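Quick one before lunch.
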Amino acid sequence: MNQELSLSFIGGGNMASALASGLIGKRCGASDVHVIDVNETALARWREQGVGTAAAPDEQLSSRRVWIFAVKPQVMKETVAQCKPFLRPDTLVISIAAGIESGTLAGWLGGDKPWTRLVRCMPNTPALIGAGISGLLALDGVSEDDRAVAQLLLKAVGEIVWVDNDDQLDAVTALSGSGPAYVFLFLEALIQGGIDLGLDAQQSRKLALATLHGATQLAALSPETPATLRERVTSKGGTTAAALSVFEQQGFSALVQQAMRSAYQRAGQLATEFAK
Ligand SMILES: NC(=O)C1=CN([C@@H]2O[C@H](COP(=O)(O)OP(=O)(O)OC[C@H]3O[C@@H](n4cnc5c(N)ncnc54)[C@H](O)[C@@H]3O)[C@@H](O)[C@H]2O)C=CC1
Ligand SMILES: O=C(O)[C@@H]1CCC=N1
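Model of the NAI complex:
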């Protein structure tokens, strides 16, 4: 076993699968990964990939260098309590649960002496194809080695950004954690718009996908700002200006920012709702 990167996912649902898909074969073998989940159907899918599974925490956990908590915020407290007896001094704990603050997790794991060998992380589902981005927050007990391990794991599925505090991680959640859903919503709207204007579904999907991909690639590679790139598309008195004036009249930018604030505030609510 690759001791350095042996890891357990506690919660083997969507996000754990997305992360594992990038890690297995790249950073570790299937046998270096272990999954604990209460759902037998979920466990069967992992076993098909050669991953070891368990329905509840057991001694196996103690031998894993890294734990990744990937259960819903609603069940984090009870799940952490079940795993805590198997913590070892050299265990690096990573949590991807939205909202649950690092200090709260440190308390649940450590009791009187908070467990600070802890990285709070917010990945996103494009990790599934190696195109994710994760925000990472390290507590005081995280050594340089631990940081390197966390980076190695998350860089296997995309890019990373270190942040300084829980509020920033909630902002990451509102932007890139939830963000793929905003993009999918926009994509759905574009496809429907094309269909409404007379294209067939296949044509519209192809055109919409290539437009989003091309525009984001151009923005990533160009030295120009998104605003300048937008202006270059917009001929005076032309079609783009006609469309953008509708977006502006309807307050598109403000709406996006309002939606993100709502996600950010929800993260704060999760922190209090499920941390009692
Ligand atoms: N889906 C997303 O785009 C992202 C999700 N997250 C976070 O990842 C976490 C997991 O989300 P998803 O994977 O989407 O949810 P999911 O529902 O697909 O997976 C959660 C898994 O946890 C299992 N589970 C429930 N109670 C358990 C327990 N006591 N012990 C072990 N396993 C248990 C469930 O059976 C399920 O398979 C959440 O906290 C969410 O905030 C973070 C970033 C992005
Ligand atoms: O919707 C959620 O709460 C999770 C966190 C970010 C993406 N999905």
